[in-house]
Amino acid sequence: xxxxxxxxxxxxxxxxxxxxxxxxxxxxxxxxxxxxxxxxxxxxxxxxxxxxxxxxxxxxxxxxxxxxxxxxxxxxxxxxxxxxxxxxxxxxxxxxxxxxxxxxxxxxxxxxxxxxxxxxxxxxxxxxxxxxxxxxxxxxxxxxxxxxxxxxxxxxxxxxxxxxxxxxxxxxxxxxxxxxxxxxxxxxxxxxxxxxxxxxxxxxxxxxxxxxxxxxxxxxxxxxxxxxxxxxxxxxxxxxxxxxxxxxxxxx
Length: 252
Hints:
The structure is a single chain. By secondary structure, the protein is mostly helical. The protein has 9 helices and 2 strands; from the N terminus they run H-H-H-H-H-H-E-H-H-E-H. The chain has 2 domains: 1-63, no CATH class; 64-250, no CATH class. The protein has helices at 2-30, 37-45, 53-63, 65-79, 149-159, 165-171, 195-201, 207-211, 224-250; strands at 188-191, 219-222. Strands 1-2 form a two-stranded antiparallel sheet. Helix 4 (65-79) packs across helix 5 (149-159).
């Protein structure tokens, strides 16, 4: 049995080596003279080498999602708050978020979209391979692209931060933000400032500042019991706010 398992493992290893050799050959052939060295180093270290520069860039940002989050918010700050834009909810067909749990994205709205060659998340020009800087000196964005690879990774992080609980745990040195105790296996990702309060109290903040409420600055990992207590307190606060609003409407 052991010999059979060893043969299977050897066959898998040989298949992977052959596959990576073909992928490396494709990647080498497609690489331009200028390419981000960190991305190339990352690509060549993967168990499965990406066969194209574009896939290498996407793999890099998927792995370094916290860098992607920081970069995407920095690019948004470079674009700035679009004049005349306000955060509102509405139908997806109009480029609007249907819930306050989705990050606001003005450049996805037809009235503020900057067109192909510009990122629909941050609004900045997109260059070769979904990169955010013109390393190649062309002076022109890639008109076939509509987003940065980094911004795609950041967007996925913003809407599903719980998928990265292990990464966030490590960043907190495995300590619960609420209690200071060691994080358990069942610990959960939480927004320090709940998103309903962002919608209610910070709706008029500058757009780049708003994105921080979905990104790392507003995320924490807490043990499930502490999270349940925090959620219960927030539910009570929301109920009290609704009652107060109803009372005010009744006196008008």
